[in-house]
Specification:
The protein is of the alpha+beta class. The chain contains eleven helices and ten strands. Strands 1-2-8-5-10-4-3 form a seven-stranded mixed beta sheet. A three-stranded antiparallel beta sheet has the order 7-6-9, with no helix packed on it. The mean pLDDT is 93.
């Protein structure tokens, strides 16, 4: 088991910090908090968009695998297909300039393209246990063995929609675990620190860093966030957006959002194209 001195807090930066500086901190620590990533109005509009489907959703998991069900959380709600549910999400959050600046710098030099892995509202209810620690790159098994020297295969944006406190389940992170030699070592809860955030702040973190949702020890608070991750275009994401998002909605989106949702072909470095139709771009086939 890796041991090290525990950091006291994650670094926080202003929302006008250059993407290059943000990624230097991510490379060093595994994650960084960007303050006031969303405005109060955007938070209000987004919460209004998703309130009805979120209330209709039962907490807990329907997965047959007990480990996966425990990972999802017995009193946690996870609302997916946010592109359909929220105009604020698809038109404002996914168009946030800093999202694309960070992803361009992360993925384009090595991978050439990127698209969205998943997007979900995660609401941890009262009296919830902490989530098991994990690394997001575990979705793609070969990269576990590559360790810290492997490529960055996912960047996650976790936006606080309510204030994050240690008591209500703030996400726990092990800063520096992105440098550990053994990525099968997920660390221990004692090595974690909470990502304390105000509503509207975002935690941007590497797929290499060990983390997990915190325990909600309150009796009446709900810790709500929206998490969305992006990965290189040559890797398969979690959500099959072209089967979820109605074509009429897709036609209203910008070309870059259509691309990160899979409505256009992917062109990784060195490839003539993936996700095509008769070797032509999917966007042309769909008349986008």
């Amino acid at each position: 088991m890796t041991t090290q001195n525990k950091a006291q807090a994650l670094t926080s930066v202003a929302n006008d910090t250059p993407a290059e500086e943000i990624l230097k901190i991510v490379a060093r620590d595994g994650g960084v908090i960007i303050e006031n990533f969303l405005t109060r109005e955007q938070i209000q509009h987004f919460n209004t968009d998703i309130e009805r489907p979120l209330q209709a959703l039962r907490p807990g998991s329907t997965h047959e695998n007990e480990i996966v069900a425990a990972f999802h959380g017995s009193n946690t709600k996870r609302l997916t297909n946010l592109v359909t549910h929220s105009a604020t999400f698809r038109n404002e959050i996914l168009e946030h300039p800093l999202v694309h600046e960070i992803c361009d710098l992360t993925f384009l030099p090595e991978s050439g393209t990127y698209w969205m892995t998943t997007a979900q509202v995660i609401e941890i209810g009262p009296n919830s246990q902490a989530q098991m620690l994990h690394r997001d790159l575990e979705n793609w098994f070969p990269f576990i063995g590559m360790g810290p020297g492997g490529p960055e295969v996912t960047i996650n944006f976790l936006i606080a929609l309510t204030d994050f406190t240690e008591e209500n389940g703030a996400t726990r992170v092990i800063p520096g675990s992105n440098h550990w030699s053994d990525f099968e070592d997920r660390g221990t809860p004692e090595q974690t620190i909470p990502a304390i955030m105000n509503a509207g702040d975002v935690l941007v973190f590497s797929g290499k860093v060990a983390h997990g949702g915190g325990a909600n020890q309150t009796g009446d608070e709900y810790r709500r966030a929206v998490a969305f991750a992006l990965n290189p275009g040559f890797l398969t994401g979690e959500e099959a957006y072209p089967f979820l998002v109605d074509m009429e909605i897709a036609k209203t989106l910008s070309p870059r959002v259509q691309r990160i949702l899979g409505f256009r072909s992917q062109y990784p470095t060195g490839s003539p194209g993936l996700w095509q139709v008769d070797y032509a771009d999917l966007g042309d086939y769909l008349n986008l």
